[in-house]
Write a structure and sequence with these properties.
By secondary structure, this protein is mainly alpha-helical. The protein is built from 5 helices and no strands. The radius of gyration is 11 Å and the shape is globular. This is Addiction module component.
């Protein structure tokens, strides 16, 4: 299991989105991972989901970040 933010972010992305992110610069990957961590920390709805299923909360936060990028 990855321990850095970028690795954790990439691990929860859907395969097609993971490919899109890995093709970006490391700086851009770090920016997206930071946005993902902020989404996880700031959304109360995700807190509830995290209690039920942490992987689902992480995946939902990643989806939201990537949707905003589109």
């Amino acid at each position: 299991m990855p321990t850095d933010a970028v690795g954790r972010f990439l691990a929860v992305l859907e395969p097609h989105r993971r490919e899109a992110v890995t093709s970006r610069s490391r700086e851009e990957q770090e920016r997206l991972a930071a946005a993902w961590e902020r989404e996880l920390a700031s959304d109360d709805e995700l807190d509830t989901l995290d209690e039920l299923s942490p992987p689902a909360a992480e995946a939902e936060a990643a989806r939201r970040v990537m949707d905003r990028e589109a």
